[in-house]
Amino acid sequence: MRLRRAPAAVRPEVVEKVPAADRFTLADLLGEATADIGSRPGRLVTTIVGTVLGVAALIATIGFAQTAAGQIARQFDAAAATSLVVTPSTAQTGGASGSSVATGVLPWDAVDRMERLAGVDSAALLAELSLPDATVTAVAVNDPSQAPPAPPALYAASAELLDAVGGHVATGRFFDAGHDARADRVVVLGSRAADRLGIERVDNQPSIFVDGIAYAVLGVVDRTDVRGELLDAVIMPTGTARADVGLATPGDLQARIAVGAGPQLSEQAPLTLAPDEPGSLQVQAPSARSQLGQAVQADVNGVFVILSVIVLLAGGVGITSVTMLSVVERTGEIGLRRAVGATARQIAGQFVAESVVIGLLGGLIGAAVGVLGVVAISVARDWAPVVDPWVALGGIAVGAVLGLLAGGLPARRAARIEPVEALRGGT
Amino acid sequence: MTAPTTVSAPEDVEAPVPAIELRDVTRSFPGPPEVQALKGVNLTVPDGDYLSIIGPSGSGKSTMLNLLGLLDRPTVGEYRLGGVLTSTLTEDERAALRARQLGFVFQAFHLMSRRSVLDNVMLPMLYAGTPRAEREPRAREALQRVGLSHRMGFLPGRLSGGERQRVAVARAVATRPRVLLADEPTGNLDQTTTGEIMALFEELHADGLTLVLITHDGGVARRAHRRIRLTDGRAEEV
Questions:
Q1: How far apart are CA A350 and CA A348, in angstroms?
Q2: Is the peptide bond before B56 cis (omega within 30 degrees of 0)?
Q3: What pLDDT score does A14 carry?
Q4: Nearest-CA distance B185 → chain A (Å)
Q5: Is B177 in Cβ contact with A5 (below 8 Å)?
Q6: Residues near A298 by Cβ (< 8 Å), separated by ≥ 6?
Q7: From its phi and psi, is residue A211 left (phi > 0), alpha (psi between -120 and 50) or beta?
Q8: Which residues of A touch B209 (CB under 8 A)?
Q9: Each residue's pLDDT tens digit, B196-218
Q10: d(CA A332, CA A340)
């Protein structure tokens, strides 16, 4: 082999320019930083254990909080999470009175249209009947010596209302689609309205009188999941209300939907009910996560996040001290690298990169352990585990950032090693 | 190859530029007491020379190696490596010059114990800007040159002392340096392996490499074609 000399250096460049592809690149840096990482498994475990624990604790904390929030939402907010209401939009009329008028109209077949949508369990039309001077009494005669009691509220509803509001009939029955279609003069009473009207049982076929017209009382509703105001109301079929009191349009549509279908149905309902002008309808639907759940999550997170951060700091100190030890052990290697042409910056970069890779590895393992922990405990408790994917990814990033910070000090020290001193020792 | 020119020494333009040129180099370490490790040393090493620097310990050999290897700077005087006045260079320029112009062989080998023989030989090329595609072929070629092509995948710990030093020599020549600096290269070797390494140096020299050997061993020093004796920081040709 003929050994050729390196090209002579000419100032001011000192040495010939190296093409970018042949320089010491980031890929070279990573290659050098990762070449030794697995060579001492015991050392590696010691180095990353703090990071693994810290990231795992952080992810488990946030994961448990999210799971608990989801659980609370399921237990306490089930009704709210499944209630969807469609109302016509309103606009200010502009006058001094400040009153508003509806700008949209719900179609009378809204129930059929809604029930065709995926995620809708049942739907019903509902309208509050505004009859300012109406009297509602249980007897036909009016006692002029007594001040007239405030009448109970009057509502018109379609036959599906009981299902849509999750109501329970204490006695008797709810009216059906037949009553509605025939405009039968029948009503169902809310339990408090029934109390005020003095009606306790329906097996004796009582009637009430609305503006003097008799309506047969079919049943009494004593409980609803939503729309508690119905317990104070007299409810008649919409067909009856259209015939007797001139109900022109439905007031709103109450639907019971599957958990989680809210955001999607918010989009679909206006298009289904008013395809020509979807903006004329407003939808109140549950958001993805309940406010109650978020509040609970904030409480739980506060304490445990602080604990996790402390563990993470310990993990960072672990990386720093082990990397520092590694710098001392590899003094000879650092001296050699400097002698063969590595700059102080390249040496520092190598140790920072090593530390980032270790942190990244710790974050990766920690995230996996944290997520598995949440899943395992949730399964044991029969909960539905909830971990936002961003939390897991964030955990990995936390590990990398920790490595970056922890590597600073050892890298600084490595860069300051004088090759002359370093090469004096042996390897 | 054309001779490199130098900007700041017009009298050298006509003559071939020496590989190494020291002029009145003094290196003193601030005390107390202040120590002058080298005192007004003048030395010229033309390309293709085979030089040994000999002296007892404390005579300034290590200081000399550090200066020649661009690991240290003279307190007074000029050092030109391949015609480049090194005192004006930045640290990064000196690192680049080390990578491209110099090869090092140490008494303690300084091999990376967790990397294969081949990886060890490829290390300097990482910093020397050797074309990426050429790095592994050149490392294999260098290992073949020192007779270790059957040990490429080994870890250094499995090699004998002589083999380790031959890996170090392969590492030093793989970048095709202008000058090979060897610091007590046989200090850790027995008689037989010392002979092998010295024979290898002789072959490299015959191939045209400039060699500077620093040693306290008179027998080793005599194998070189020129000898410089350091005594109390002063150099004289033997």
A1: 5
A2: no
A3: 62
A4: 13
A5: yes
A6: none
A7: left
A8: 3
A9: 899 999 999 999 999 999 998 88
A10: 12
Q: What is the pLDDT of residues A340-395, one digit of tens each?
A: 989 999 999 999 999 999 999 999 999 999 999 989 988 887 777 878 888 889 98
Q: Are A352 and A411 in contact (CB under 8 A)?
A: yes
B190 sits in the region (left: phi over 0; alpha: psi -120 to 50; else beta) called beta
Q: What is the ipTM of this complex?
A: 0.88
Q: HEC states along B169-231?
A: HHHHHHCCCCEEEEECCCCCCCHHHHHHHHHHHHHHHHCCCEEEEEECCHHHHHCCCEEEEEE
Encoding tokens for residue A167? 């109501």
- What's the pLDDT score for residue B26? 93
Q: Domain boundaries in chain B?
A: 10-237
To which H or E segment does residue A156 belong?
strand A153-157
The total number of residues written for chain A in this structure:
427
Tokens describing residue B56: 């007892």
CA distance A276 to A406: 61
Omega within 30 of 0 (cis) for the link into B33: yes
Interface test with A, best of B100, B159, B167 (most A CBs within 10 A): B100
Between the two ends of chain B, the Cα-to-Cα distance in Å is: 32
Largest CA distance in chain B: 53
The answer to whether residue A21 neighbours chain B at the CB level (below 8 Å) is yes
CA distance A179 to A96: 42
Rounded to whole angstroms, how far apart are CA atoms A39 and A50?
A: 20
Query: If you count DSSP H runs as helices and E runs as strands, how many of each does chain B have, helices first?
Result: 7, 10
Q: Cβ of A419 under 8 Å from any chain B Cβ?
A: yes
Residue contact B127–A21, C-beta within 8 A = no
Residue B166: half-sphere exposure toward Cβ, Cα within 13 Å:
25
A340/B3 touch (CB, cutoff 8 Å), yes or no? no
If we measure between CA atoms, which residue out of B81, B75, B106 comes closest to residue B95? Answer: B81
Is some CB atom of chain A closer than 8 A to the CB atom of B145?
A: yes
Residues of B in contact with A16 (CB under 8 A): 100
* Residue A220, strand partner residues: A171, A189
Q: Which CATH number fits domain B10-237: 3.20.20.140, 3.40.50.300, 3.10.180.10, 3.40.50.410?
A: 3.40.50.300
Q: Where are the alpha helices (DSSP H) in chain B?
A: 61-68, 91-101, 117-128, 132-145, 161-174, 191-206, 218-222
pLDDT, position A6: 38
